[in-house]
Amino acid sequence: MQAFHHPTLFTWLPLNHWCMASNLRGWSAQDVIKFLKGNGFTLHRSSGSHFQYKAIIAGQARLVTIAFHGNRDIPIGTMNSMVRQSGIIKESWLK
């Protein structure tokens, strides 16, 4: 199997693996909310255009903050942050 060295990940990955993050592109706030609700999250509080969803994942309380700005796509860095906040493995987000 060929490997590709991704310059920002500092690790060797299979050629088709480094593209995984691109599958998190194109998510709107509505998409994220629908996904979180489907995984047991409920609205905890909101302030202005920011919404916080809360759930117990793997025995830990998790809080995910979502900035709602219409139908605009959420930037990839923000999506990665929400994935980390949720405690849900990235592969579940990519399905």
From TrEMBL:
Q: Which organism is it from?
A: Candidatus Kaiserbacteria bacterium CG_4_9_14_0_2_um_filter_41_32
Q: Which Pfam families match?
A: HicA_toxin
Write down what this protein is called.
Type II toxin-antitoxin system HicA family toxin
Q: Which family does it belong to?
A: Belongs to the HicA mRNA interferase family.
Query: Out of the domains of life, which is the source?
Result: Bacteria
An example molecular function term from Gene Ontology annotations: endonuclease activity
Q: Which UniProt keywords apply?
A: Endonuclease, Hydrolase, Nuclease, RNA-binding, Stress response, Toxin-antitoxin system
